Amino acid sequence: MKQTHRSRWSGLLLAGLFGLTGAVAGCGGAEETPPAAGGAPEVVATTGSAAAEPTPTAAAVDPCALVSRQEAEQLAGTRLEDGQPVRETCTYVGPVSGPTAQVEVFVGDGAKKFLDIERDLGHELRPLAGVGDEAYASHEAVFVNGSGVWVSVRLVRLNDPAENRAPLEKVARTVAGRL
Question: Do the beta carbons of residue 115 and residue 136 sit within 8 Å?
Fold first, then answer.
């Protein structure tokens, strides 16, 4: 019985917070509909034009969709496991039997931070002309900015990095086209 009492208070508290959030948002930006059975009220946006196309945000971009498994395998030059998405990343790893290979895709703040660290360490970054709004390549990664969203694709292989230059630039162009 205490649990039920707590659940009701929690529901009322949440409903109050949602109501307060709508009031603070102000300017007639949202309408509340009555709550569903025991739930919090639904908030429906009522402002703005439906014709305006929203710009993508990092949270809206699926990193595993930016670089497919087949594209990651072409980049790595070997078979890879399915991509493992974790938050704003997707990682394709080589089989445990080898060869060593991994492709990592980062979207958003993590990608931008990776680029900033590369700069701070003084690593060579080559601008990639005509790729996205802004793009760079290092020996092991590419960094692409499209519509305000940063993406980096990092390749881990035990080979001469010069062999990876063209495949990394190709994946940068592919990513830029999908942003």
Answer: yes
